[in-house]
Structures are given as C-alpha cells and as structure tokens.
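Predicting holo structure, magnesium ion bound.
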Amino acid sequence: MSEHIHKEAFNLLCGELIGHGMSRQVFACLLRDDLVVKTESDSRRFQNVVEWETWQRVKDTPMAIHFAPCHSISPCGSVLVMSRTRPAGLDEFPKLMPAFLCDFKRTNYGVIAGKKGATTFVCHDYGTSLLFENGMTKRQRRAHWWDAF
Ligand SMILES: Nc1ncnc2c1ncn2[C@@H]1O[C@H](COP(=O)(O)OP(=O)(O)O)[C@@H](O)[C@H]1O
Ligand SMILES: [Mg+2]
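Done. Tokens:
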C-alpha cells in the first residue's frame, strides 16, 4: 500500500498532539474522544508493548482500577490506543499508591470517569511499572508527587 494511504489513515485516526514524554507522542483520537493514540518510534523501548501486556494481565483483577485501559495495539506495537484521562486536580493525588506503580510525575497519572459520576485515579504511563518486580501486591507506599517544570 502507498505511503500516502498510510499517512491518510494516520491523519484519520490522530488529531491534536496532547502530550509527549521520553519515548512517546500522544494524540487525541479523532474517531472517539474518550481515547488517545500513543505512538512510539524509539527503538528497543517497547513501552507500548509493556503497557498492552500489563493491561492484559491486570484487566480482570481488582488491580485494574489503577490503570488506564488499553483498547488496541498495532501488530508490532508502535501504535497503542488507550482510554483518555483528564488531568487530576492537585487535591486528587493520593498519598499512598500501590507498590507496583512508580514514576510519580503528576503528568503520568490522570482521572477516568466511572459509572454514576464516580471517578477513578489511574496511571496512564505504566510502560516502566514495577509489576514485574513486585507483582500484583496489595502493598502500598507513599507517593512523592513531582512536576517536571
Ligand atoms: N491515556 C492518556 N490520556 C490522556 N493523556 C495521556 C494519556 N497517556 C499519555 N498522556 C499524555 O501524554 C504524555 C506522554 O505520555 P506518557 O505515557 O507519559 O509517555 P512517555 O512514556 O513517553 O513518558 C503524558 O504525560 C500525558 O500528558
Ligand atoms: Mg510519561
């Protein structure tokens, strides 16, 4: 298929660039405003893949409430579709967080609307979480929240 068609497909799916980090760019999804599209072009980082695999493992467990759900991933993992969070207000950051989460930069976390007006505070950057190291423990630790600027 031509490169032109690939670009067209990308522009059909992705709108405004809403964020970027060490390894990824994150776009609003033009097809559904409750989703984002995370693209990863750096080699050998695999954070999209780790997020996808993490979500597959936690999604049917009580731990799911701590993670922004993943919805789809491209065959080689460069493009990940995730639920869109809204930025958390300063009073919404919990003092204690599960021991398998880390990187407490405020912009790595957000809020998702739940049922009946409820909200859930979730991590949307969990490509480097400590789930491999600590497992799905119920242990919590004090979170030292910080801002990049
Ligand atoms: N699910 C999401 N919903 C809304 N914004 C997001 C979401 N995921 C990431 N972002 C925004 O994009 C930025 C970069 O994404 P992030 O997952 O932190 O990438 P990186 O692994 O490169 O740090 C975040 O700091 C945040 O502002
Ligand atoms: Mg980040």
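Residues 21, 108, 125 surround magnesium ion (ligand 2) (CB under 6 Å).
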